[in-house]
């Protein structure tokens, strides 16, 4: 399966709320972009404790979700920006239900691997100036996901994102997100333990799950 990359996006740290900084405002980049183990060249993270690192190197938030948000919050000007939700990749036609944990994708000359869904935080609501967006993400599962970089390379808008290797059968980003943070089912400790045992899972998320089980 192959999808076209509409844009690659990166952001710089800037004032966000009070004294806090954020790089959630991602803008489309021109020309070839280097993709390293730590992400796209020029992309920054203001909070390295919760963002960035090898298992959060590349964030994909599906462009198709922007239509959902227009129905929810109206035609907000930020929804015309492919990096509105802090996404590094702007792609149509792919969603959380399509992506398996551990699936590998060729992005230009780089190879990336899906390793965790994204947990939403308050910064999305502050960026859009709209309350209730986190609750909508938790209820709808429109979370996006992170990839680690297996092979470094370069990519640019117009390149393709191509599935090279399927991940773990049944373990979609949608299923993982629902089990960890969703609202439709009670937390299932056995399911959480099974998720923590999945080899491709991001190590930091694995640690958070184990801490949650041991609490």
UniProtKB/TrEMBL annotation:
<dbReference type="GO" id="GO:0030151">
    <property type="term" value="F:molybdenum ion binding"/>
</dbReference>
<dbReference type="InterPro" id="IPR011037">
    <property type="entry name" value="Pyrv_Knase-like_insert_dom_sf"/>
</dbReference>
<dbReference type="GO" id="GO:0030170">
    <property type="term" value="F:pyridoxal phosphate binding"/>
</dbReference>
<protein>
    <submittedName>
        <fullName>MOSC domain-containing protein</fullName>
    </submittedName>
</protein>
<feature type="domain" description="MOSC">
    <location>
        <begin position="27"/>
        <end position="164"/>
    </location>
</feature>
<dbReference type="GO" id="GO:0003824">
    <property type="term" value="F:catalytic activity"/>
</dbReference>
<dbReference type="InterPro" id="IPR005302">
    <property type="entry name" value="MoCF_Sase_C"/>
</dbReference>
<dbReference type="InterPro" id="IPR052353">
    <property type="entry name" value="Benzoxazolinone_Detox_Enz"/>
</dbReference>
<dbReference type="Pfam" id="PF03473">
    <property type="entry name" value="MOSC"/>
</dbReference>
């Amino acid at each position: 399966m192959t999808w076209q990359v509409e844009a690659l996006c990166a952001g710089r740290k800037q004032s966000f709320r009070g004294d806090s900084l954020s790089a959630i405002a991602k803008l489309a980049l021109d020309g070839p972009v280097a993709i390293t183990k730590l992400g796209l060249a020029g992309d920054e993270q203001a909070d390295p404790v919760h963002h960035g690192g090898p298992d959060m190197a590349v964030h994909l938030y599906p462009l198709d979700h922007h239509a959902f948000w227009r129905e929810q919050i109206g035609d907000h000007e930020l929804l015309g920006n492919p990096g509105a939700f802090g996404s590094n990749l702007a792609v149509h036609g792919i969603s959380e239900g399509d992506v398996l944990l551990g699936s590998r994708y060729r992005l230009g000359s780089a190879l990336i691997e899906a390793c965790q869904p994204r947990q939403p935080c308050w910064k999305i609501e502050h960026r859009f100036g709209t309350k209730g967006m986190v609750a909508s993400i938790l209820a709808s599962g429109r979370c996006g996901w992170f990839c680690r970089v297996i092979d470094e390379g370069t990519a640019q808008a117009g390149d393709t994102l191509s599935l090279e290797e399927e991940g773990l059968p049944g373990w979609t980003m949608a299923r993982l997100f629902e089990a960890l943070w969703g609202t439709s089912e009670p937390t299932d400790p056995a399911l959480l333990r099974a998720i923590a045992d999945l080899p491709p899972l991001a190590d930091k998320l694995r640690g958070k799950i184990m801490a949650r089980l041991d609490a």
